[in-house]
Specification:
The complex is a heterodimer of chains A (115) and B (115). Chain A is built from no helices and eleven strands. Chain A is an all-beta fold and 115 residues long. In chain B, the strands form two sheets. In chain B, strands 2, 4, 5, 9, 10 and 11 form a six-stranded mixed β-sheet that branches. A five-stranded antiparallel β-sheet of chain B has the order 1-3-8-7-6, with no helix packed on it. Chain B contains no helices and eleven strands. The chains are: A mainly beta (115), B mainly beta (115). Chains A and B meet through strand 5 and strand 10 of A and strand 5, strand 9 and strand 10 of B.
Chain lengths: 115, 115
């Protein structure tokens, strides 16, 4: 595709509900990142994939958060038993190789509200 | 570990006036530095980046930034603000060009342009 696509754009969940957020990176991009952006703050790293391999998940805040990229393209971020503190915008980004000096291409994000 | 501090969460400038957004970083190794812009309901877009070489970096839309190692700063400037510059701006740092090296973002500065 032309850019990074994320769905849904908005998600409202009741506390305790499970949610799944989808990211379609730019075709051919090896690296995929997930970030969490709380209201009024900068994005914070959650996890990183190189192709299908999850090489860094140090930013996932708890074991309720799980991410996968089974075929090295589309990725899903799943949050189990959502809590109010999970409310944030979840950003997906991709890059050709994922090097720290590379440009990241970001999606528009999924805004999650947990009631 | 890296960190980024952006001075001023909100900046108001008049159309045609200088835009100056301040960014200071902390890094234990020579950093890679970035400025991203986020327009409403859009993903973050890269404005410019410093990796190696010339310390004055020119980006899109007339923005530029200067890497000053002695001051650990990477301030963003634009000589003449335009209404379309109203957005949120994020400074970010990466510690390595290695694949998967994540960006650490500052808290962001929201720019308001007055006619």
């Amino acid at each position: 595709g032309a850019g990074v696509s994320q769905s849904p754009r908005y998600k409202v969940a009741k506390r305790g509900q499970d949610v799944a957020l989808r990211c379609d990176p730019i075709s051919g991009h090896v690296s995929l990142f997930w970030y969490q952006q709380a209201l009024g703050q900068g994005p914070e790293f959650l996890t990183y994939f190189q192709n299908e391999a999850q090489l860094d998940k140090s930013g996932l805040p708890s074991d309720r958060f799980f991410a996968e990229r089974p075929e090295g393209s589309v990725s899903t971020l799943k949050i189990q038993r959502t809590q109010q503190e999970d409310s944030a915008v979840y950003l997906c980004a991709s890059s050709r190789q994922g090097g720290g000096n590379e440009k990241l291409f970001f999606g528009s994000g999924t805004q999650l509200s947990v009631l | 570990a890296q960190s980024v501090t952006q001075l001023g969460s909100h900046v108001s400038v008049s159309e045609g006036a200088l835009v100056l957004l301040r960014c200071n970083y902390s890094s234990s190794v020579p950093p890679y530095l970035f400025w991203y812009v986020q327009y409403p309901n859009q993903g973050l877009q890269l404005l410019l980046k410093y990796t190696t070489g010339a310390t004055l970096v020119k980006g899109i839309n007339g923005f530029e930034a200067e890497f000053k190692k002695s001051e650990t700063s990477f301030h963003l400037t634009k000589p003449s603000a335009h209404m379309s510059d109203a957005a949120e701006y994020f400074c970010a740092v990466s510690a390595s060009r290695a694949a998967g090296n994540k960006l650490t973002f500052g808290g962001g500065t929201r720019v308001l342009v007055k006619p």
